[in-house]
Amino acid sequence: MLSLHLIGRHFYAGDHARLLRAVTENGLDLPAALHPHLADEPAATIGLALRRLAELTYGPTPLTAAMTTALLEHQRDDGGFGGDEGNAADPLATAAAVAALHRLGEQPCGGGPGVALACERALAVLAATQDPDGLFRGAGAGERGSRDALEAERALVGATVLLLLGDAPAFYESIRVDALCRSLERRQPAFDAAARQLYRRARVSQPRPVAA
Asked: Looking at 43-166, which runs of residues are DSSP E strands?
């Protein structure tokens, strides 16, 4: 079981690889193909861990405050998270950050000052990285490989974004979720078992039906 002590230990040590592993092995099963990309983005690992921490605590704690501060320090001037300097924000890191900020906003204190605005700005950036087909550009390592590798990674990223944010009302106001679901549905025959399971979990997590 993932404990607050374990989250705090890895966070304060700056061990993002172990922090990611702890979260994905305890309640957030993500395909192994995404782990290297996530581990390279501190905002993604902190966001995923903070999201889980907010679910475990339901209120402010010193660790929550420290992780929130650390996450917001990674927010770019344009409002997004992750990505190389001079390039667009990373959609996966931005979605992970939004997922954490959304959970914080559901707490009685609203997550503290600046959380709502940070979440709104990050969602706007995430929307700007959405391609006409509903998936997201700048997906990560796949861009440096073959077209098939890029498309597979774009689908994984799209399904992960849907899984992380499918229960957030603001997600449906900012992102073209219908286009995202249609693209993922069309790509299902090419999914491997892990991607297919991820997409199914993402669709089940949605509070409202979206035509695919």
From this structure: none
Total Cβ atoms within 10 A of residue 168: 21
pLDDT tens-digit series, residues 198-207: 888 888 877 6
Token pair 């475990």 is at which residue? 56
H or E segment and range at residue 37: helix 35-39
Query: Are 168 and 98 spatial neighbours (Cβ–Cβ below 8 Å)?
Result: yes
Q: Which of 116-125, 127-136, 199-208 has the lowest mean pLDDT?
A: 199-208
Pick from 100, 125, 124, 94: nearest CA to 112: 100
**From residue 79, how far is each of 59, 90, 118, 203 by CA, in Å?**
25, 11, 7, 27
pTM, full prediction: 0.91
